[in-house]
Design a protein that fits this description.
Layout lengths: L11 H4 L14 H14 L1 H18 L1 H24 L1 H9 L1 H19 L2 H21 L4 H11 L6 H8 L9
Length: about 180
């Protein structure tokens, strides 16, 4: 984790307001859509982190124990998946070929476990809703020249960020920055 730097917080104007440009992605070109999502995740990661944290704090204020149980379940499943993908070749190949299915599988298994534990509402609103909002924003936000430059620095290894490490763990490092 040495050399990992959190990127700067992007302005609200750049993130959501007047200078932000949005467009529905071309659903027929999945590679381009995936590229847009990955690059926006890298560029706006601080904004996404703060937005998700704010929502989690709000949910945690009303349901702290259920939120904690949900966070432990999802984190355990994610770490177990990353460990299995690093140590089992078939899982590693599946993760690289189907990253979206891999994330959805983690969320589905988390949902099923939390149903048994009784934390469904907290999971849906405290964990899955912020992830959904991040993915929607990353899908529809068009990239700027500054965004493309920052992503290129990340992809050639001049900058290491937490989102870059997360995408690498999910098998998406080769596509970032392209």
């Amino acid at each position: 984790m040495a050399g990992v730097q959190p990127p700067p917080l992007r302005s609200l104007d750049d993130f959501l307001l007047s200078s932000a440009r949005f467009a529905v992605p071309d659903l027929r070109d999945v590679d381009r859509w995936n590229n847009r999502i990955i690059n926006n995740l890298l560029y706006y990661q601080s904004n996404y982190f703060l937005s998700g944290l704010g929502f989690l704090l709000l949910v945690g204020y009303f349901q702290p124990l259920q939120l904690l149980v949900g966070a432990v379940v999802v984190s355990s499943l994610f770490l177990g998946f990353v460990w299995a993908a690093e140590n089992q070749a078939p899982i590693r190949r599946f993760r690289r070929k189907h990253p979206s299915v891999s994330v959805l599988a983690i969320l589905l298994v988390s949902y099923l476990l939390l149903t048994v534990l009784g934390g469904v509402a907290v999971f849906l609103f405290g964990i899955a809703f912020p992830i959904l909002m991040v993915l929607i924003h990353a899908s529809v936000r068009l990239r700027s020249l500054k965004n493309k430059l920052e992503n290129k620095l990340e992809s050639i290894g001049l900058k290491r960020t937490p989102m870059g490490l997360l995408l690498e763990a999910l098998g998406q490092e080769q596509e970032a920055g392209s």
